[in-house]
Write a structure and sequence with these properties.
Largest sheet: none
Shape: elongated
Bound molecules: protoporphyrin IX containing FE
Helix content: over 70%
Order of helices and strands: HHHHHHHHHH
Number of domains: 2
Radius of gyration: 20 Å
Oligomer: single chain
Strand content: under 5%
Number of helices: 10
Number of strands: 0
Structural class: mainly alpha
């Protein structure tokens, strides 16, 4: 789910920027091709999401959705104090990011659909559609840069990249940054003072 979303987002962002910025459009010069790449990537992305939900590990998806949905007192305290309160497998920031990403995906799809359909039937051409699509792009670009910074650069959070690429993280790191989750591990507690 993560990599389908990430790869489609990058292709949609780059092709969308080439449609949006006259300087980029001039360099690339092939607007119809870029538009096709943009629209077909969107269709491929939505189809891949459906395939994941239909034939993927639905139990794991449901588990993750439940974790995101559970926003407890520790999560609120963590947000208010910017850290400090004990966190589960996903911290409060990661939960918020997941919710905003899902809402944006829906809004991108709806506005994108009307941009496409409005060209075929002018009754569905609305003045604000492109404006909303553009603003979603600005905000999601900023969030994307922040997400990249935390997952690749920031020293205490970048170890989470191992979780999404290799499927595991060091237990000592989990115990330090996600103690409520680490407390559910059925193994002896780590003793290493590891802040990776
Ligand atoms: C399901 C998702 C999406 C659909 C169906 C969709 C569809 C479209 C369509 C039909 C256009 C109009 C192309 C034209 O006539 O010039 C467009 C433009 C654009 N899209 Fe998307 N899009 C989607 C997602 C995204 C995403 C994720 C981004 C960026 C992160 C993005 C950025 C843009 C930009 C910047 C434009 C140019 C708008 C302008 O000319 O002001 N789109 N999109």
């Amino acid at each position: 789910m993560h990599w389908v979303h990430a790869s489609a987002f990058v292709v949609l962002l780059v092709s969308g920027l080439c449609l949006y910025l006259p300087s980029l459009a001039e360099i690339v010069g092939r607007r119809p091709l870029l538009k096709s790449i943009h629209v077909y990537t969107a269709v491929g992305w939505l189809a891949a999401l459906v395939v994941i939900v239909v034939v993927g590990d639905r139990a794991a998806l449901r588990r993750t959705a439940r974790e995101i949905d559970m926003f407890d007192r520790d999560d609120r305290a963590w947000l208010a104090r910017r850290g400090g309160a004990p966190q589960g497998r996903l911290n409060a920031g990661q939960k918020l990011n997941a919710v905003v990403t899902a809402v944006f995906a829906l809004l991108f799809a709806v506005t994108g659909f009307f941009l496409w359909y409005g060209e075929r039937d002018t009754r569905f051409r609305f003045a604000q559609t492109v404006l909303i699509h553009d603003w979603l792009m600005y905000v999601s670009f900023v969030l994307f840069v922040g997400h990249l910074y935390l997952s690749v650069v920031h020293p205490t959070t970048r170890h989470a990249l191992s979780g999404i690429t290799r499927g595991w993280v060091h237990e000592a790191w989990a115990a330090r940054h996600h103690p409520k989750w680490a407390a559910t591990f059925d193994v002896p507690r780590p003793t290493v003072d590891d802040d990776r």
